[in-house]
Amino acid sequence: MRRALAIGLTAIAVLGGLWVSPILARQPYNGPLFDAHLHYNDEACVHDAPAPGCPHPLSDVLARMQRNGVQAIIANSRPNDGTKALAQAREQTRAAGVTVVPFIRLYRDRADYNNWFRDPSIAELVRTELTQGTPSGPYRGLGEFHLYDSANAQGAIARELMVLADQQDLAVLAHVDDVAVEQLLRHTPSQGRNTRLIWAHTGIGGTPVARVDELMARFPRLMGELSYRPGLTCDDGQLCPEWRALILKYPDRFMIGSDTWINQRWLYYDELMKAYRLWLGGLPPEVARQVAWNNGARLLGLPDPGP
Ligand SMILES: [Zn+2]
Description:
Elements: H1 2-15, H2 22-25, E1 33-38, H3 58-67, E2 70-75, H4 81-88, H5 90-96, E3 99-104, H6 120-132, E4 141-146, H7 156-167, E5 171-175, H8 178-186, E6 197-199, H9 209-218, E7 223-225, H10 241-249, E8 254-255, H11 263-267, H12 269-280, H13 285-300
Parallel strand pairs: 1-2, 2-3, 3-4, 4-5, 5-6, 6-7, 7-8
Pfam families: Amidohydro_2
Protein name: Amidohydrolase family protein
Domain Amidohydrolase-related: 115-302
């Protein structure tokens, strides 16, 4: 009876020119989001300076997260003061419903981007931060760090920090190419088997999907964060077919992130999250929930916040 009615209504809609394609009819994902790549850098706020030194105070960035349903973040900031400011604001973050998962950024300033992998003072910085922790608890990971040339994955400090990550069960957020992913993982005592490496952007240079697939198969704890990933979405804002297939093949291995590396990303934070919700809504609901929330929560031991 109901089925007959539905068919009848569909026929009327088609005849009346009201046919809505299945893709247009999809609803954006409306559950919680885990932002697995968030910076609160000193361009956004120098924490002991009033405006204009702080164009995006805590109240502003937390409001952006809250209104977008972002309920947890991997916070990593240049310098680490931004992450500590988030970690310290216990009442404000609780009120906004945001759990802060702190990672140690390896950079004091921009010069460190190109030198950290061979600079012993960076290993020193990491050990000091690990000892001190943050007001919301211990650091849970290292990064984001960059390797613009994969050969630098062989740097002494890059090796040392990957061993440290394995020994202390720290996750790693790495902006590197596919060759460096393999090299970094091979430096670890577990040869990458136990290493929770989050591949920032999952190949920002456009690593072929087949190669991403190969690495996911080889390293069972490798995770892919999807900001700035070329070729991820197609004209309709939905996942391109090969990415949809890859995410369906590894539904527990991908995460979303904002990468607020410059203030413009804060200004467009709403649009970024809306774009994620749009393509997440095109996935089966249980897979959308995994990519949006569960994968990050599982990786870092967060409770389920409910619907
Ligand atoms: Zn980043």
